[in-house]
Amino acid sequence: MRIFAGSRVHLLWQLLLIALIGMGLHAYAIQYERGLAVSGMSDQISWGLYIANFTFLVGLAASAVVLVLPAMLGQSALARLIPLGEAMAIAAVTMSLLFVTADLGQPLRVWHALPLLGTPNFPASILAWDVFIITAYLLLNLGLFYRFFRHPAHPTPRLALLTAILLGIGIHTVTAFMLAGLPARSFWHSAALAPRFIASAFASGSAVLLAVLFLLEKTMGRPLHREAMPLLSGILAVSLWMDLFLLGSELFVRFYPLASHGHFAVAPTPWAAMAVEGLAALVMTVPGLRRRPVWLLGACLAAFGAVMIEKGLGLVVTGFQPTPLGEHVDYAPTWVEIHVSLGIWGFGLLLFTWLVRMALAAWDRFSQPFATKDSP
Amino acid sequence: MSRVDPQRRKLLGALGVAAGAPLLAAADPAGVVNDSLSTLLQAHYQRMTSEEIMEAIARIERRALRDYGVAIHCRNTPPIPGVSFAMAIDLSKCKGLRHCVAACSAENNNNRDQTTEYIRVLALPRHTLDLERADHYYTTSDPDHRHLPVQCQQCDNPPCVQACPVQATWKEPDGMVVIDYDWCIGCRYCATACPYWARRFNWRKPCLAGEQIHPDTHYLGNRPRPAGVMEKCTFCIQRTRLGQLPACQEACPTGARIFGNLLDPDGELRHILANKSVFRLKEALGTEPRLWYFTSV
To answer: Is residue B207 part of a domain?
Structure first.
């Protein structure tokens, strides 16, 4: 099992991702040269595609918890998959940090946010908290993944797992608080935002893991998922319903009062995302549907996409409408923003691909149950 | 906080320009790189020594000369003890003429290429205070509308200062919320946190012709800003700390604005607060603005 070399599909996949990275770098060079004026953002809608990806990806990173928490409670089928969760967390956190950096007007000044060197506004600024906790989570996952890669047979210490759970929930809670803690923006200013973030994060994470397990079985003949599949399916279904329930509670509080009016009522995208999420939840709940690979994969894809829109552009951009002075301005990402975003996704997927192959290689070396069918 | 004695700074500043100008005339690329690197590595304004601030000011002045061909004068006037600035706006006098907006942009070296004005005047139908029904882009001043000028409220409890991850924005002892343009990382979280939509971002390098540059500047005020940082109204810190009125008040033809020292018991501001029915915007948020509105009729 090698990491970079492999089948023709693997090589083409890596080439495609490298091409995306190149495209992203080119677009970023233009943005760096001309300023963020090349984005679709404005003083009215001052965050767009970059921060939308950031909030979504912090959630995806946090959702490694869907493996670690059941593992701590004795679900050994999921415990064995923890390195996959760590790979997902590392790739997602790295992407989220890149997205924040891409959004900065003065990226060379990031060191101002670091302790000792800079002046982090701690503990007042939730964004300063976010920088700390996301960095800590990245370092922990890198450490745990490296430890697994060197010694795959050694179980992860329970204290490390507990820390991973707390930090995982922590990064996404802090990211939600970053938005929910602003009374200036009524759309985000809700106690339900952090629980919603966690529920939708678990949905997106279990969808990714299910899809990855399925692909590994189909393309590489690795029966990794036999026991994990039902558990992860259950987690995906419950997470989707929880998210829909919390979203429904939010809508009730917003729209039941007679005087209520809001931009959300006319924005079609969040409603569409919610409908798609509902369909995915239904498929994952009906046994006859979720056991069929096509339906399962479709539901995973739908859940992933719906959460990405609901917690991404649907949440971030809608929060800016109207502005605190009542102005309604539209936002659409420019090609520069789209290319930079694709480049960051290319980098994250490349990292994820390599990490997954590292995990497979480690399993091949040491532990029998995860070896390929034809290995001795 | 390190403050520089104005006289001493003035002298050294002048020396800096005198030393810098011949080099610039020879288009010294090493000097440009040196300046850029020094600016990149300089400390937070409140952490710099007097000498470091003077060097930073010399760089600011050299840069303005390079970028705009204008010899600006960048001051670092400290707050005056016993002074706490605030403003009141008489809504019955405001006719929505927006002279304040134009004067503000000219005074503060604002980008003329896009809508980065610090003051937004909202035209509201007389029967409502629902801001979503306000017209931001009216072209003629309609007598059937009431006009509500909104700018930075210089809150005593500012959400923007709380939000900033790097302490690049803070409240000065005389009341103004200011920004260190050389420390701001450009994340725009402060703008997101502001309930008054008072902060503006330099989406690109400000588009200003040399003759549009107002050369009397302040480090924390109207000095030319780099791209990718926030800016906002500072009650014209470069003027008011020298005892002048803010540009918006000076430009207002109807006398709707009253700027002053809250701590002066005999001042007009205190008279208005004591005798008029004043209110502040979005008071329920607890931001404690320093901008009061009232009607005199």
So the answer is: yes
Q: B148 and B259: one domain?
A: yes
pLDDT value at residue A225: 67
Average pLDDT of span A20-26: 98
- Tell me the CATH number at B111: 3.30.70.20
Split into its structural domains, chain B has a count of 3
The partner residue sitting opposite A184, judged by closest CB among B40, B193, B201, is B193
Residue A357 banded pLDDT, cuts 50, 70, 90: very high
| B217: nearest Cα among B115, B106, B114 | B106
User: Does residue B223 share a domain with residue B119?
Assistant: no
Whether A106 and B229 lie within 8 Å, measured CB to CB? yes
**Residues B164, B228 within the same domain:** yes
From residue A312, alpha-carbon distances to A107, A176, B138 in Å are: 22, 12, 34
Q: Could you tell me if B37 lies within 8 Å of chain A, comparing CB atoms?
A: no
What residues make up the domain containing B18? Answer: 6-75
Residue A184 C-beta-side C-alpha neighbours within 13 Å: 24
Report the residue of chain B nearest A117, measured CA to CA. Answer: B43
- The beta-carbon neighbor of A121 closest among B164, B195, B285 is B164
Question: Which of B41, B119, B120, B189 is most worth mutating to test chain A (most A CB atoms within 10 A of its CB)?
Answer: B189
Residue B1 lies in a domain: no
Categorize the per-residue pLDDT at A255 as very low, low, confident or very high, splitting at 50, 70 and 90: confident
Domain shared by B44 and B178, yes or no: no
Q: Which of A109, A264, A266, A328 is the best residue to mutate to test the B interface, defined by the most B CB atoms within 10 Å of its own CB?
A: A109
Q: pLDDT > 90: what percent of chain A? A: 77
Identify the domain boundary among B30, B46, B75: B75
Residue A47, φ and ψ in degrees, nearest 5: -125, 145
Count CB atoms within 10 A of the CB of residue A22: 13
The packing angle between helices A82-103 and A335-366, to 10°, is 160
Distance from CA of B242 to the nearest CA of A (A): 30
* A36:B44 CB<8 A: no
Closest CA to B65 of B229, B179, B215: B215
Domain count of chain A? 1
The reply to whether B149 and B264 lie within a common domain is yes
CATH of the domain at A133: 1.20.1630.10
Q: Are residues B113 and B138 in the same domain?
A: yes
Candidate from B159, B161, B228 with C-beta closest to A106: B228
Say if residue B135 is in the same domain as residue B174.
Answer: no
Whether residue A41 and residue B116 make contact (CB cut-off 8 A), yes or no, is no
Whole-structure pTM value: 0.92
Interchain CB contact of B162 with A (< 8 Å): yes
Chain B: residue nearest A181 by CA?
B193
Q: Tell me the residue range of the domain where A257 lies.
A: 8-367
How confident is the model at residue A170, as a pLDDT? 97
Same domain, B148 and B18: no
**Which pLDDT belongs to residue B14?**
46
Cβ <8 Å between A322 and B184: no
Report, as an integer, the average pLDDT of A104-112. Answer: 97
pLDDT single digits (tens) A28-64: 999 999 999 999 999 999 999 999 999 999 999 999 9
Q: What's the pLDDT score for residue A376?
A: 34
Among A204, A211, A201, A330, which Cα is nearest to A263's? A330
What is the bridge-based pairing of β-strands B85-90 and B257-261?
antiparallel
**Chain A to chain B Cβ contacts (< 8 Å):** 146
Residue B281 in contact with partner chain A when CB distance is under 8 A: no
Q: What is the DSSP letter of B235?
A: S
Percent of chain B residues topping a pLDDT of 70: 90
